[in-house]
Amino acid sequence: MTTIQSTHDREKLRDLAVEVAAEAGAFAAKGQEGITVLDTKSSPTDVVTEMDRATERLIRDRLLAARPDDAVLGEEDGGVEGTSGVRWVVDPIDGTVNYLYGSPDWGVAIAAEIDGVVVASAVCLPSHHRMFEAVLGGGARLEGRTLRAPDTVPLDRALVATGFGYFPERRLQQAKVLTGVIEHIRDIRRGGSAAVDITGLATGRYNAYYERGLHLWDWAAPGLVASEAGLRVGGARGGPPSNDLVIVARPGLYEELDGLVTPLGADTDG
Among 65, 125, 147, 160, which is least packed by CB within 10 angstroms? Predict the structure, then answer.
């Protein structure tokens, strides 16, 4: 059973996440030039590069060197069991297609969870020279400065970010949902990285976000940054975030967006 209970203990997990994310981000950034596709996962458009796997190995090695009894769940190599009660949830390169094409919109996301609750996290965006960090109940920070999301706006003035899945059938449904959303909001953005999009809400880059098909490693670390910055992170019909749907926005706007996208089938494949 874990003994990680106090804010101080959570801060130590956060500090380790920040340290490892910074090293992994620098490592991945150095390897971005000339990168090629190594393999595909769920579909031909769901790519993984040699740097995804190498970066995840680096993160796993550093975390377990510091805390050998912890568990680790990574996007590329699956899970390692532990006995401490702490599990690290890792996305080594979130936004792999962006990374492959030389776009700056990708990041390294590391979260620590206890009993299924994320208690500390770090999101490094190397090309943007940004490090986001958060502790459950202890707030969110960007480059050491306290981070608070801007005040909410009405749905019709909201700049909304979203993403699309890898399977054609899901993309078609997501496009249909989008046609029902676009007339009710200010505009839409599709960045290609949940880590960039969700942390971007905390800085005011967007007002709201929704996406179907995300996995825990996609939203765990940036989701804690967002929630500690004053945003609501949830799913369809006010439920928890899940693979079915993740919604992030200030309270008030969250409910409006949920009430718009869920009846349109944003949490289904049609």
Answer: 65
